[in-house]
Each structure stands twice: as structure tokens, then as C-alpha cells.
Amino acid sequence: MSSKDTASTMADKDVEHPADIPVAITAEVEEKYGIKAHWKCLAACTLVSMCPFQYGLDFGLIGGLQAMIGFLKVFGHPAPHVAGGWNISPSRQQLISSLMTLGAFLSSSLVGPTATFFSRRQTIWAASLLCIVSNVIMMATTSIGGLYAGRFLLGLANGFYMTFSQLYIQEVAPARYRGLMISSFQVWTSVGTVIGGVVDNFTEKIDGRDSYLIPLGLIFVFPVVISLGLFAVPESPRWLMMQGREDQARRSLRWHRPYTDRMVEEEIKDIRLALAAEGETVKGASVWDMFRDPVDRRRTVLAVCGLTVQGASEAMYMIAYGTYFFKMAGIGKPFENHVILTSIGVVAILVNSAMVTHFGRRRIFLISGLILCRVAQLLTAVVYTVNPGTKSTGQAIVGLAAIYILGYKGMVATYAWISGGELPSQRLPSYTFGLATAIGFFAAWLTTFTAPYFINSESMNWGPKYGYIWTPSCWISALWVYFYLPEVKGRTLEEIDQMFEARLPARKFRKYVCVGRGGGGGGGGFANESDRNSVNWEKKGDEVVHAEEVKRVSC
């Protein structure tokens, strides 16, 4: 059978694979197995996706704590000129919120070296222990230094939670359901934020330290649940393959997949060939490998920029300081408003989760979400500038904040994390995704650290006018997504590897037909570059052409 015939055959979802053609695990093959067939894998991914609950819970809690009288009496100072009679200095506010993010930045930066020696599950267990220790410190201390230490340690835990849980999901989830599982990752983040806000709303009326100790006690729950559940879940088969432990990887893959033994062997073969094409094993990789090869360098830049666009939309001041922001701006009931906004975010992500498997185009949703965020921020700033302090302005700002959250949670955040995790090479996922996450956390730290200067009544006191600064960044990010971010919806990791190796420009990824290793035309590797080119195709309407006819442009 010719290469062209092979491509046509394997692209047809309704044609069974002939016995003489290896069954490469493509999106077409995966579509024959529904959610029920993949229940064990999806249950494992759901358990691991609970890790960012801690991250969301922290943001939901800490924003409310900084507006609680009980908390401010311990860590703040009297301020008769503001609502409630107590306030906190901008410098303390900066450190309380940003030290957690700084810790997450540092731990994310160490993901590459850490993943060389420790598995995905082992690191999540370590993060759970660190999370519990940090919370004990925060609950026991009445010293601002102790609170700073607890915040920093909690950030270290959250950095490992966010990166290693995401890596596990990206490596284990079938291509068809990868977007769904990553969107559930965002669901747990938002659910954590909602629960934190709801608990704050009920406890802020309590007098004394109990008002903030009760919410902090929630942080103990999920690390224990996740740690116990991981005993029933196998390690990532791709990580085991990168460590050269193929027998264990095969057993893990059989647990995660409903496939026949022959199909499991083909997926193992695809992973082996993908790793062989990029280098022997992860043990031979280093941080500099992300930049030495032009293909890896491109993938590193795309992963970093793809994940960082959520920082460019500047959600951090709405998430980390939402309650405080509403309170100091005199907008309605601050705790209730923050709960409403975070609940809207949960609804937006749940709706997106229902759509992502069938309609989850990364580029379209990211661009649409960024434009929506830009418009909402600009109008918020304009409304407050024209008519500050009135009831109608407050109502308008809450409504615009709801629109902003719909764009950010329903589109930007979900697809930024998906893009950041899908695009790294298979030999360097820990290094590349760790770098992308670290830079994303650094951007979040920078915005949480500087936001109090703009919104705090004792500093610049801009309030909602802070939106003026972030409107241009949304525009720039949307333009970058349009010109440079590839569309990889529904692709296996091996197919993504193949498209990057073909040096496709971003606009050609969506219609590219993969054959050969990881694609529909067989499971074999490539003897040389000419063999690789002879089995790569791009689909233009009804026409299939050789990949060497595609202009090789690094985007």
C-alpha cells in the first residue's frame, strides 16, 4: 500500500485497520472508545486534577482574610477613615499575597531537575506534606514573619501541585479527552475559590482570630484526600518510559487504557519512537536542551507564551484582591460580590467543559476570551472615571466584572493551561512546562505585588481605574495567539511531535494529516529525514500533499 493510500485509509474513521497496518493510536482510533471505556483513566485524572483546588482555595480565602476585622486586628492597623475602621499596609498586603506566588514560581522552576529523580505521584505527595506544614504555621502564628513564612511554604507546595498534576494529566489522558481533563483542572481551581469566598462570607462576622482560623482549616482537607487516593492510581506510563522502565510503563498503560494488548503495544512503541527521535531518555536531558535545537526552542517559546497569556489578562487583582477591591471602592457588599463572581467563573468553566471535547479550538477561544477581558476592563475603568462612588457605577462595575470573569475563566485560563501543557516535546515536558509555569507564576507574582500600589486607599487609590493599564496587554496577547499559536485540538502527543518536526507554520497545524510514527499510517520510525518527509501530509480541502511542499517556517 502506498503512503498516500495509507493516509487516506487511516484518516477514515469508519474503516477498520487492516491486519498488515500497525495500529497507531491516533485521535481516529481513540474516538471508537467513549468515556465509559476510559473510566479508570478519567477517574485518575479527576483525582489528580483536584490538586489546584488548593491554589484556588488560597486565593478565595486570602482575598477575604485581608478584609476581615479579626485578621486586620492581628496583622493590620486601625484606620478610622476607611470602612470597618481597620486596614492593612500596602507592603504587608503585597507580601501576604505575593509570597505564595513567589514560592510557586521557585518550585515550578525546579520541576525539570525534580522530575529526573522523583515521579509525578511522589512529588504530589511531597506537595501535600508541605501544604499541611505551611498551614500549621499560618494558623499557629500571630507574627507577621510567621505568616510570611507559611505563605511562602504554601507557595512551594502549590507550585508542585500545579505543575506535576498538569504533567500527569497531559501524559495520561487520551487525546480526545485531554482538553476535558485540563478544563476540570480549572473547575477545581474555581470551586476552591468559591468555597473559600463562601466560608469567608460566613466567618467574617465572627469576632477574634476564629474568623480567619476556620477558613484556614479547610486547607487540610484536600491534601489528605489526594494523598490517599494516589495509592490506587498507577504512575504515568510516559514518565516510566522516560526513565527506561518499559515493563512498568506497559502495566500502567494497560490500567489506563481500554485497548487490546496489541493496541497497548502500539502506543508503547509510539512513545518509545517519539523519545528515540528526540534523544535517548530524560536522563540525558538538561535545561539547555530546551533552546539548543530550533524545534525544541520553538516549542519552549510557544509553551511559555501560551501559558503566560492568562497573566496578560491581569486576572490576579480580581482574584487575589477582589473582596478588598470591592470594599475599598465602596461597591455593594464586597464578600457577596466576590462569591457571585467566583460562582460565575465555575459556571463558565462547566459550560466550557461540556464543549471542549467537541468544539474546544484553542486559538478561537483564547482570542475571544482576551478580547472580552479587554473590553470589560476598559469599560470598568471608564465608568469609574466618569462617575465614581455612585450606586449605579457600583452596579455597572459588578456587571462588567462578571463579564470579565466569563471571558477569563471560561476561555483564557482553561485554554492557556491546555496550550502550555500540550506543546512541549516529550523528552523535555518537565523542563519546558516547569519553565512555562514558573514564568506564569512570576507574572502572577509581579501583578499581585504591584496591584496594592494602585488599588490601596493609602497609596495611589486608583481602584477600578487600574483596568486602563491592562487593556493593551490583552490586545497584544490576542494578536500573538492569532499569528503564532498552533491548533492541536484532538491530537495525540506523538502527532504533535510529528507536526513540529515537519516545521509547520502555526496556521497549517489544524488541517495537517499525520501518518507514520504516531499518526494514522503506521507505527514505524524513520530511517532518515527523507523517509520522514515522504510520509507526512497536509490536507488542503480534498487534496493531500507532501509535507516537504509545506513552507518550513518557525513561528
UniProtKB/TrEMBL annotation:
<dbReference type="InterPro" id="IPR020846">
    <property type="entry name" value="MFS_dom"/>
</dbReference>
<feature type="transmembrane region" description="Helical">
    <location>
        <begin position="124"/>
        <end position="142"/>
    </location>
</feature>
<feature type="transmembrane region" description="Helical">
    <location>
        <begin position="430"/>
        <end position="455"/>
    </location>
</feature>
<dbReference type="Pfam" id="PF00083">
    <property type="entry name" value="Sugar_tr"/>
</dbReference>
<feature type="transmembrane region" description="Helical">
    <location>
        <begin position="338"/>
        <end position="357"/>
    </location>
</feature>
<feature type="transmembrane region" description="Helical">
    <location>
        <begin position="300"/>
        <end position="326"/>
    </location>
</feature>
<feature type="transmembrane region" description="Helical">
    <location>
        <begin position="95"/>
        <end position="112"/>
    </location>
</feature>
<feature type="transmembrane region" description="Helical">
    <location>
        <begin position="467"/>
        <end position="485"/>
    </location>
</feature>
<feature type="transmembrane region" description="Helical">
    <location>
        <begin position="211"/>
        <end position="233"/>
    </location>
</feature>
<dbReference type="InterPro" id="IPR005828">
    <property type="entry name" value="MFS_sugar_transport-like"/>
</dbReference>
<keyword id="KW-0762">Sugar transport</keyword>
<keyword id="KW-0472">Membrane</keyword>
<feature type="transmembrane region" description="Helical">
    <location>
        <begin position="396"/>
        <end position="418"/>
    </location>
</feature>
<dbReference type="InterPro" id="IPR005829">
    <property type="entry name" value="Sugar_transporter_CS"/>
</dbReference>
<comment type="similarity">
    <text>Belongs to the major facilitator superfamily. Sugar transporter (TC 2.A.1.1) family.</text>
</comment>
<keyword id="KW-0813">Transport</keyword>
<feature type="transmembrane region" description="Helical">
    <location>
        <begin position="55"/>
        <end position="75"/>
    </location>
</feature>
<dbReference type="InterPro" id="IPR050360">
    <property type="entry name" value="MFS_Sugar_Transporters"/>
</dbReference>
<feature type="domain" description="Major facilitator superfamily (MFS) profile">
    <location>
        <begin position="44"/>
        <end position="489"/>
    </location>
</feature>
<keyword id="KW-0812">Transmembrane</keyword>
<feature type="transmembrane region" description="Helical">
    <location>
        <begin position="364"/>
        <end position="384"/>
    </location>
</feature>
<keyword id="KW-1133">Transmembrane helix</keyword>
<dbReference type="InterPro" id="IPR036259">
    <property type="entry name" value="MFS_trans_sf"/>
</dbReference>
<protein>
    <submittedName>
        <fullName>Sugar transporter 4</fullName>
    </submittedName>
</protein>
